[in-house]
Write a structure and sequence with these properties.
30% helix, seven-stranded parallel beta sheet, globular, alpha/beta, 2 domains, Rossmann fold, homodimer
Chain lengths: 305, 305
């Protein structure tokens, strides 16, 4: 196991010992590679997984597995299961709705006013005025779409393969991206990290949005070009942004992004379940695999997620 | 007309001139009291309304009319219409959902971390874990309840007379307040400002909530005892609060509330529609009254709202 270092391991151990006392749980560096059946990892050192001949299954400690699959020696014949406990989509929906309302109600502006003890009232748009476009309509995008609709936002989506969600117009594939962007007052990026999505959130894409559009990225840091976002905010093409992901993480303490008055930074927490919930899900998956039932969210190397 | 001073008046005038060119619109101090048919006011000087013998109707510039009815000479025989344009309930719902998610996702903590350029990640509860209790189930409370349910929050309410809203258990009257509070992890105050609700949000009420409960007040400032809120936050009985209203307003620049790390302050903006929308609604009401159709939301002196 390698996720969260030694301190993180102690927490995983405590929860797994309570949930599945029969499992023998060891820290990465303490285990005999030949004796490992299951590995739980976030950003393993290259080559380590390949050195485990008896490995039956790899668990990613987060929904994204790009830090695992970037290892050139990643053992592609071993099933890689993405961390998708039942509450993960809801939690992402909580975050996306918070971020959407935060942009709508200008939460960053209010926080800066509070910091200066200044009473500055203003009126703003309402949810039905803002057309939300979600890039990526997987499990998380679908839940976010339903929750945003419940708030009164008109919602549409963009996806690689067609998704049929109630009340959500889906723009499918590269050819439909322009039409998708043209009607997106607020763009929510929930795309998986693949070669095709790297750097997608940059100047060229922002130019195709309505002027003053809003941006939320809860996908992956490599999908955004941070200097482009800062420039678009300065120039007015973007009216505000909430970013949960960066490349690299954590964001450097001296990065100018921290202080931008139209940018809200959150530390990759969008869909992070408490470790207890993640441990329960892993324990449940292992019990299922031992009984012959594989979890659904297995990494597909062909798709890249 | 008296709402927003001379500068505010110029904005009202511009919108009303465009929407209802036949109306003769004058600033409060410029009008002949004997010639006024309709008055639009937020906090009129005591006695001024009583000096208008031909007054047919008074419009409040906000949903609350307590700053109008506190005038001892307020002419009670003249209908007083509360500002409730169609979008007002949705706008309040936007605000309440933002505030609820802001407390859930610890938006204040993240804003303070961003201000120090500190990357501090943490996991937190999810909407289905937090039982929301809404005090006041009028038009605004009902819309907020539906939107909160759409986010996955379990929602119940407390009201003077029984309200039947889908999926919302209603606790009715003073006798049910204890039972209501006991199951409220997050309390949302949307009560009207009456003698019975003044000072209700204080230490005695907080003590009946689950430890670490969260508070949103988007009702009226007189309903809360601000030093009690700060003490409950310091002591841990309250885990966080978002306050949109104060007494008096604006909140004094040297008030210690501004700097509290668990308290988010917003400047009475919860359901403030843009002036254009409010002007359109007033113009529509006047056209209706002239045609014999009175608006629904007329102040009831017996109820106090």
């Amino acid at each position: 196991m390698k996720s969260g270092g030694r301190a993180g391991f102690e927490e995983w151990l405590e929860h797994l010992a309570a949930l599945a006392p029969a499992l023998r749980v060891q820290y990465w560096e303490d285990a005999d590679p030949a004796a490992v059946d299951y590995a739980l990892v976030w950003d393993p050192e290259p080559g380590r997984l390949a050195a485990m001949p008896g490995l039956r299954c790899i668990f990613g400690a987060g929904a994204g597995v790009d830090l695992i699959t970037r290892d050139p020696d990643f053992p592609r014949h071993i099933p890689l299961v993405r961390m998708t406990p039942p509450g993960a989509a809801q939690r992402m929906g909580d975050y996306v709705c918070w971020a959407a309302l935060h942009l709508l109600r200008q939460g960053r502006r209010m926080a800066l006013s509070q910091a200066r003890a200044v009473w500055e009232d203003f009126s703003c748009a309402s949810a039905p005025d803002i057309r939300v476009g979600i890039m990526g309509l997987g499990v998380m995008g679908a839940r976010a779409a339903a929750m945003l609709q419940g708030l009164g936002f008109p919602v549409h989506g963009w996806s690689r393969s067609e998704k049929r969600l109630p009340g959500v117009t889906d723009f499918v594939g590269e050819a439909a991206l322009d039409d998708f962007l043209r009607v997106s007052d607020l763009v929510v990026c929930l795309l998986p990290d693949t070669l095709a999505t790297q750097g997608i959130l940059g100047t060229a894409l922002f130019a195709r949005l309505p002027r003053g559009a809003l941006l939320i990225n809860a996908g992956r840091g490599r999908q955004q070009i941070l200097p482009d976002i800062l420039a678009a905010l300065d120039e007015g093409q973007l009216g505000g942004a909430v970013l949960d992901v960066f490349d690299p993480e954590p964001l450097a303490a001296d990065d100018p992004a921290w202080g931008h008055p139209l940018l809200t930074i959150t530390p990759h927490v969008a869909s992070l379940p408490p470790r207890r919930e993640r441990a329960a899900w892993v324990a449940g998956c292992i019990a299922g695999i031992e009984a012959g039932h594989w979890p659904e969210k297995v990494y597909n190397p062909g798709l890249g997620y």
